[in-house]
Amino acid sequence: MRKHFVFKxxxxxxxxxxxxxxxxxxxxxxNLNRFYMNPSKTEHPTIWAAKKxxxxxxxxxxxxxxxxxxxxxxxKKGGFMFGNYLTDIVK
Length: 91
Hints:
A two-stranded antiparallel sheet has the order 1-2. The protein is globular and about 40 Å long. The chain has helices at residues 15-19, 45-61, and strands spanning 69-70, 81-82. The chain is mostly helical. The chain has one domain (15-82).
């Protein structure tokens, strides 16, 4: 697949929350999965920055095929993934 696609990996977006034992929340109590559509630079900086990178790549290179959010879940077992759909990126 690496011959046909470019993979960009953004590591953990919630290290401060995870280090304190929170599954879904940052240290401010925000569930960061709920802020992809309209993240605040000051309140959700990791989500804001990740979205900015994705949007810029899509605008500059016009070749964004997909992005995938891999993560664990507090009540689900096994591996799974979510694929977020942002209408302001996909045209």
